[in-house]
Specification:
It is globular, with a radius of gyration of 13 Å. A hairpin with a 6-residue loop joins strand 4 and strand 5. The chain is mainly beta and about 130 residues long. The protein is built from no helices and eleven strands.
């Protein structure tokens, strides 16, 4: 069984930065496409960012493109989300998710395609 554990959330001011981490258990982390999703109060969960298992390809939602960066270190079984220029609209619980991927080009855009989820970490941005 794979476990994903997020950390790095917190309360910050608008314009600040945070880096989220997601550590995975399991020996096949390097075969997982990974994604970050978020859910704000009263809203549906939404896609934020995704990365292939090699780390060569990434993609982002329009709302975070240019401000957030997803990366991974397969030697540490960890995926990161660097968040810059945070705004109050970024306030949400952030979840990492993983998908077993046979093909190296696979990205994870949809939550219902994920095989594993973390417990979430709260990010609160005040103006």
């Amino acid at each position: 069984q794979v476990q994903l554990v997020e950390s790095g959330g917190g309360s910050v001011q608008a314009g600040d930065s945070l880096r989220l981490s997601c550590v995975a258990s399991g020996r096949t982390f390097s075969r997982y496409a990974m994604g970050w999703f978020r859910q704000a109060p009263g809203k549906e969960r939404e896609f934020v960012a995704t990365i292939t298992w090699s780390g060569r390809s990434t993609d982002y939602s329009d709302s975070v493109k240019g401000r957030f960066t997803i990366s991974r270190d397969n030697a540490k079984n960890t995926v990161y989300l660097q968040m810059n220029s945070l705004t109050p609209e970024d306030t949400a619980v952030y979840y990492c998710a993983g998908k077993d991927a046979f093909w190296r080009s696979v990205l994870l855009y949809r939550g219902d395609e994920a095989d594993y989820w973390g417990q979430g970490t709260q990010v609160t941005v005040s103006s």
